[in-house]
Amino acid sequence: MKILHIDSGILGEHSVSRRLTAAVVAQIKAEQPAASVTYRDLVSNPLPHLSGAHLMAANANPADVDAQVAADVAESAVVLEEFLAADTVVLGVPMYNFSLPSQLKAWIDRVAVAGKTFRYTAEGPEGLATGKKVIVISTRGGHYSAGPAAVMDHQESYLLAVLGFFGITDIEIVRAEGLNLSADSKIEAISEAERSISTRSSLKVAS
């Protein structure tokens, strides 16, 4: 079994999403010690944002491609293969300005590849990355899962849409929200999320 562990929180050791992704991966490893883990930190090792040069390089003569662009294309291939090879993906996703980190968006742009994770057919788009489980660690400063602020959630809603587009239906969200409302609210939200991780007999990970 292969686990892909992705962090995108920019606060380093103060990041709640990083703390919770580590807890999820540790819980899976405790249940399945033979599982292998590939870790990618999108902050310490950021991917360049998608560019026109990157897209054009796919159909260009390799001799005509700038060395930096060629290196970027090669890295994209590695990122895509990591995703395709994973049985379970653990995504650390803090909400920034009602959406997800730009670092994570850059990663999504590298795995959203026609013919690899999706394709267009006469009947409409078809996801090709089926059979995976994705565990999303969602952290938010306020409350967006319900109430008036729910319309501003372009974090979880976007992820559910794009992962569904890839054909992934087994998506689990571990959420900690209200982190910035008060010190007590933060402690309570983190504790609740950690309890939801540690008390599960199984995360029903793909194998």
TrEMBL record:
InterPro entries: Flavodoxin_fold, Flavoprotein-like_sf, FMN-dep_NADH:Q_OxRdtase_AzoR1, NADH:quinone_OxRdtase_FMN_depd
Gene3D superfamilies with a match to the protein in the record: 3.40.50.360
Entry keyword annotation includes NAD: yes
Domain Flavodoxin-like fold: from-to ranges: 1-198
Oxidoreductase as UniProt keyword: yes
Catalytic activity: N,N-dimethyl-1,4-phenylenediamine + anthranilate + 2 NAD(+) = 2-(4-dimethylaminophenyl)diazenylbenzoate + 2 NADH + 2 H(+); 2 a quinone + NADH + H(+) = 2 a 1,4-benzosemiquinone + NAD(+)
Cofactor(s) required, per the database record: FMN
Binding site for FMN: S15, V16, S17, M95, Y96, N97, F98, T139, R140, G141, G142
Alphabetical UniProt keywords: Flavoprotein, FMN, NAD, Oxidoreductase
Enzyme Commission number, as recorded: 1.6.5.-, 1.7.1.17
Self-association and partners: Homodimer.
HAMAP family: Azoreductase_type1
Family according to the record: Belongs to the azoreductase type 1 family.
Name this polypeptide is given: FMN dependent NADH:quinone oxidoreductase
